[in-house]
Give the backbone structure.
Amino acid sequence: MPIYSMTGYARTQVRVHDQLAYTLSVKSVNHRFLDIQLRLPAGFDALEMELRRVLKESLVRGHVELTLSVDRTVQQKAGYNRELVAGYLDAFKQARTEFKIKGEPDLNVALRMPGALQAETRNNSEEDVTALTESAAREIAPLLEEL
């Protein structure tokens, strides 16, 4: 049975797998017509269409805001730009020899150079988007009942 008018809030947090979780929240206030606002991360177009369909089937009126936020607990791999650091060390040795000065290169200085440190970040893989889309599609109905 569709809901005609309501003011409410509901939220659920779901862990899809070890490195991917999300929070899905719905907020609604009375409104003369059905006004749906979705806030989803980029790349979830298929999920947006499914969520709109479910919201339109379940609600008749109200200003409804649905927000999906993705939480990644990724262990980032840190590394360094080997060529850049090697170039710094070679330049240091050449300058030391050319100007006949004493001193040792400072690793902290080398690693503070722009681009010296690199982190491997994980983007939305197709498998993650599919898994999250399927999970959120399952979770929306119970979330609307809680609303």
Remarks:
- The helical segments are 45-58, 82-99, 107-112, 126-146.
